[in-house]
Write a structure and sequence with these properties.
Molybdopterin biosynthesis moeA protein, domain 3, six-stranded mixed sheet, elongated, Molybdenum Cofactor Biosythetic Enzyme, Chain A, Molybdopterin biosynthesis moea protein, domain 2, 8 helices, alpha/beta
Length: 428
């Protein structure tokens, strides 16, 4: 296993007191070994139970999709040559074809000057290459007339195998099985599919000042909001959460918690105890148990963070403030979790919006500022940064529709400038 030191040695300008966001993303992913390469990492599910799981093997199409040439419209099928498009075409209707109705006996070639009334999805008659929709023809008894303006060879015909050719890879290993992917598998007749098992992620909050919800309030004690946040975000991104509760600032209990988590889970996440001056024994214990480094990341919110390995299990020590926990999860843990699940980490979708007012920003760090998003009369999206950007102000994350992402090298943004926004509805 590659060590953190080996990874950081290859980085240009690495500074543990001011690590760039992009470097953290790279290092975190480098420490993760994807699941799905061992038989025990794969489970077979019914298709309808596999939504948003990760495909464990390539799926090869057993047949052409569609299986035969078929009509894309309710209309009339006939053979049309390029030389016939300059004038109206009169045809004799010589049959009817319905979708799902098998062709019995021989399928004679359609004669010149004839057409077949055909429904959507029905096989094209032999010798036909074009379908004109019913609403575009004039029919009188068994005769139809098609105006020259509606004549185009090959129109409204689906070719056999145009979606998938037999023997081609329909879906690749690592594909997330969203609705369209499941529909594609269903079109191949697959009732089950092999997927990567859900990763088990152990999470606990740290701090003697933190107590579980439901207990009477105490002076100097805060309720554990981070666990509610993290359990929800982990579940939404496809993990099975091992909730280990609140661990006080006690070296013995902390060591036991980290050892248990690293032994039983595929990833370990904690919050709190990673800032300067906080719970020094936590840092010493984590370093003693594994290959763990402590950084001050050039970002706001979420500067302090620990990353490394314990028993070859990736470990993320997140900040204690709840907004910082959410931002560092989205920025660093989420792509690492995607890699763990066997899929390619993806960038969060970015919305471009105009700043409604000046946004103060210090160069040399990446900032994520909570903002409301509206659309102006010109159709542009407008981002308005919320007034209180404190990392402990969780209500701001509730009110915000997005995070304005201000890059490492950028400075103050002027009103009307375009900014990048992570939209939050999908992710939290």
């Amino acid at each position: 296993m590659t060590t953190v030191a080996q990874i950081t040695d290859a980085l240009q300008g690495y500074d543990p007191q001011s690590v760039k966001v992009d470097d953290v993303v790279h290092i975190a992913q480098s420490l993760v070994k994807p699941l799905g390469n061992l038989p025990q990492d794969i489970e077979v599910l019914k298709l309808h139970a596999a939504a948003y799981r990760v495909l464990a093997q390539d799926v090869v199409s057993p047949t052409n999709v569609p299986a035969v040439d078929n009509s894309a419209m309710d209309g009339y099928a006939f053979c049309l040559n390029a030389g016939q498009v300059s004038q109206d075409l009169a045809l004799t209707v010589s049959g009817l074809r319905l979708a799902g109705q098998p062709i019995t006996g021989d399928d004679p070639t359609l004669q010149a000057g004839h057409c077949v009334h055909i429904m959507t999805g029905a096989p094209m008659p032999k010798g036909s290459n074009t379908v004109v929709p019913s609403e575009l023809v004039q029919r009188d008894g068994d005769r139809v007339v098609v105006q020259a303006a509606h004549l185009q060879p090959g129109d409204n015909r689906r070719l056999a195998g145009e979606d998938l050719a037999q023997g081609s890879v329909a879906l690749k290993k690592g594909q997330v099985l969203h609705a369209a992917a499941l529909g594609l598998l269903a079109s191949l007749g697959m009732a089950t599919v092999g997927v990567v098992r859900k990763p088990v992620v152990a999470y606990f909050s740290t701090g003697s000042e933190v107590q579980d919800v439901g207990l009477p309030p105490k002076a100097g004690v805060i309720y554990d909001s981070n666990r509610a946040v993290m359990c929800a975000m982990l579940a939404s991104w496809g993990a099975t959460v091992l909730d280990m509760g609140v661990i006080p600032d006690d070296p013995v209990q902390l060591e036991q918690a980290f050892e248990q988590a690293a032994t039983t889970a595929d990833m370990v996440i904690s919050s709190g105890g990673v800032s300067v001056g906080e719970a020094d024994h936590t840092k010493a214990m984590m370093k003693r148990l594994g290959d763990v480094v402590f950084w001050r990341i050039a970002m706001r919110p979420g500067r302090p963070m620990a990353v490394g390995l314990i028993n070859d299990t990736p470990v993320f020590g997140l900040p204690g403030n709840p907004v910082a926990v959410m931002v560092t999860f989205l920025a660093f843990v989420r792509p690492a979790l995607q890699r763990l699940m066997g899929t390619t980490p993806s960038a969060l979708p970015v919305l471009r919006a105009k700043a409604s007012a000046d946004i103060r920003k210090r160069g040399g760090r990446t900032e994520y500022q909570r903002a409301s998003i509206e659309r102006n009369d010109q159709g542009d999206y407008v981002a308005t940064v919320l007034p209180n950007q404190g990392s402990g102000v969780l209500s701001g994350m509730v009110q915000a529709q997005g995070l304005v992402v201000l890059s490492h090298d950028s400075g103050t943004v002027s009103a009307g400038d375009w900014v990048d926004v992570w939209m939050l509805d999908r992710f939290i």
